[in-house]
Each structure stands twice: as structure tokens, then as C-alpha cells.
Amino acid sequence: MRTVVLLLILFSLNCQPDAEISRTDPNPFAVELDPMPSFRRDYWPTRGWQERLLPKDRWEALEDYAFRRQGDEEDRAGIRTDGVVIIKDGYLIYERYAAGYDSNSPHLTWSVSKSVLQTLIGIAEKNGTLSIDDPVEKYIPEGKKEHTITLRHLLNMSSGLDANEGYESGPLKSTVIAMLYTRGRGDMAQFCASLPARAEPGTYVYYSSCDTNILSGVLKEALKLQHGQQGTEIYSRYPWEQLFDPLGMDSTTWERDGAGTFVGSSYLYASPRDMAKFAFLYLNDGVWEGKRILPDYWLDFTRKVAPAYKTTPAYPGWEDLYTSQWYANTAIPELGLKAPWPSAPRDTFAASGHWGQMIFVIPSMDMIIVRMGDDRDYSFDKDRFLSLIIKAVQK
Hints:
This protein is of the alpha+beta class and 395 residues long. The chain has one domain: 3-Layer(aba) Sandwich (Beta-lactamase). The protein has helices at residues 2-14, 60-66, 112-126, 151-155, 175-181, 188-193, 209-227, 231-247, 272-283, 298-303, 382-394; strands spanning 81-88, 91-97, 107-108, 253-254, 268-270, 287-288, 291-292, 327-328, 349-353, 357-362, 367-373. The strands form 3 sheets. Strands 2-1-11-10-9-8 form a 6-stranded antiparallel β-sheet. A 3-stranded antiparallel β-sheet has the order 3-5-4. It has a two-stranded antiparallel sheet with strand order 6-7. A hairpin with a 4-residue loop joins strand 10 (357-362) and strand 11 (367-373). Mean pLDDT is 92; it is low at 1-21.
């Protein structure tokens, strides 16, 4: 009888739903995550943001910094903000546009797209379509290497694949340029998965658009494995049915490559108001209108610095503190890494894209900041921008 009871207990433990199982790696660093706060909302912005605009005089310093156009259109020099939306306590408190944009205008988000693709992977894991610990080769044969690359490695920008993320600085050697515009554009996931390895997966952090586009291809193949011939059609609707439509993100457009795969690294378009809705999902721990959309462990996974920093030698750019296709404001003293935005609370995390696209989520302040731009000379100071907003809000 005791044996039967023991077997029943073991069976019940093994049959717990995935949402109750923590899939996060142990934190290899001394700094612990601040817990996500829990908010009680009196409405959800699915049909639009309700406003509680702060007085205009509070924003004078911010607008003088962010919206004072510099240089001519040909040079595109200086700070060139196209739009800013700020959400506080669930309400829109500030909004301004420039350069012909307005509240309904979709804007190219560049690499903020990566954070959205990461969200789709989280949804797919929750739905049982895939596991982030699956090997890439299960879905894309070209991903088979000497050492197994998992989806978790891709999410953490730690695949070990020999990509080159050079843009204007080195177009002839750039993997990302080849992927987006020349020999890789017919099937970006296959092109990227075919790259040779330069490091063992999970040991070396390197920001790579290839890692994200492999994930996009994996999602497509996983849906095909799950649904057969219907999988391709389900994939084409997946971002809308699983994410954009439930959140009321009506402005979104997402380009695809020659194989019909969403360009997860770069080519999502959406309005700042809609990107604020996307960020609001994360501010509310993956829950929307009382329904859990993301796994309950996803926010910790999203905010935790990639474990491979522990074994990555310092190089220019590594101080950006990548997590899982997002960025953290967590200093790691043991590695000599400082918080990138010292004026903001340490629980701040962000999505960031080329030429000045950015989303900041600040849980401890119940605040979201979306900024779209067209910066070309890297003169925009994110920490100064954040400090001006925080001062305005706290007046």
C-alpha cells in the first residue's frame, strides 16, 4: 500500500503543468532581482489609453533636450526624436510627436522587434508548442553543431555562432547586412543557423540579430510540427492572434523574409502608443485583463542578465547587459559592470533598437517610457533622458 501511495505521489509531481515549473537558470551573480510589484488596475488600455496629462511646464527641460531638432535633414546630426509616450500608474501622462508623426503613425522599431519576438517564444512555451531548452537542430537541421545550441542560448544572445553585427562601421564583413539584404534574405533563419561556431553555447555573450531570426524560424517550424500543414498559416497569424489583438495593438506591421519568416530582429512597425501596450504586459508580469499570457517565470527570465557574462571576456559593447532579448539596469560589481542608467531605479529594464528606438519599463515607479527617433550620431544620452523624465514626474 505504501508503495502504491508513493508511486501516486511521484506521478502527480511529474504531471504538474509547465506554468508551475520554474525554467529560469540559477542566478550566477551576487546581485538579486528586485521582486515584481503587483498592481491593481482600474481599467486596461486594450481599447486605448486613458489620459491624466501632467502640466506642460513640467516637461520643459525634457522637451528642450529631446525635441530640439539639430542639424539639417541631409546630415541627420544630433538628437532627432520622433515621438515620446509616457505611462504612469496605468495612465498616459505625456505624449509628443515630431517629424510628421502622430499618435496613430506606425514607426519602425528596429531591434525593439527582438523583444517582441522573445514574447512570442514565451507564449509558445506556455502553449506547449516548444520549450526554451529544446535544441535548435530539432527545428532547423543547419543548427546542429559540435555542441548543442538551445533556444535558451539564442534568447540569451549566447549561441556561440560566429556572427558579425557590424552595420555602417563594417558592412563588408557584416553578417547582419548579408542576412537582411543580400545572400541571407531568402531564408534568414537557415542562413544564420548555418554559421560556424566560435564559442561553446552558453559561454560567450554577443549581441546578434541572427540569434533572434533563428528563433523566429524555430517558432514557424515548431508550429508546423504541432499543427501539420496548417502550421504555416497559424504562424502567419500568430503575432496578431496571440499578442497584438489581445492587447489592442492595431497599428502593427511585420515584414517577412523570402521564406515567409517574420524578421524578428528588425522589421516590426508600430505606434508608440501600441508599444506602450506591449510594455504594459511586462509591467503587469505577463498578465492582461486578468488572463496570464506569458509563463509566470518569464519576467524573471527577461530581467536576469545572461549567465554567459560569467565566462565572457570583456570587449567593447559587452557592458550593455543583455538579458533575454532585453537589457537590464543591474550592476555586476564582480565583473566591473556598472548600471547603464544610474539615474533610473535598478529594476529598470529596456528594449532598444537602432537609431534611437527604446522602451523603458520601471516597475518600482509603475512607469513606461517609449521613445522613437532617427538618431544617427549616437549623441542621445539615455540616462540624461531618463533623469529628466523622473524629475518631471516627481515634482
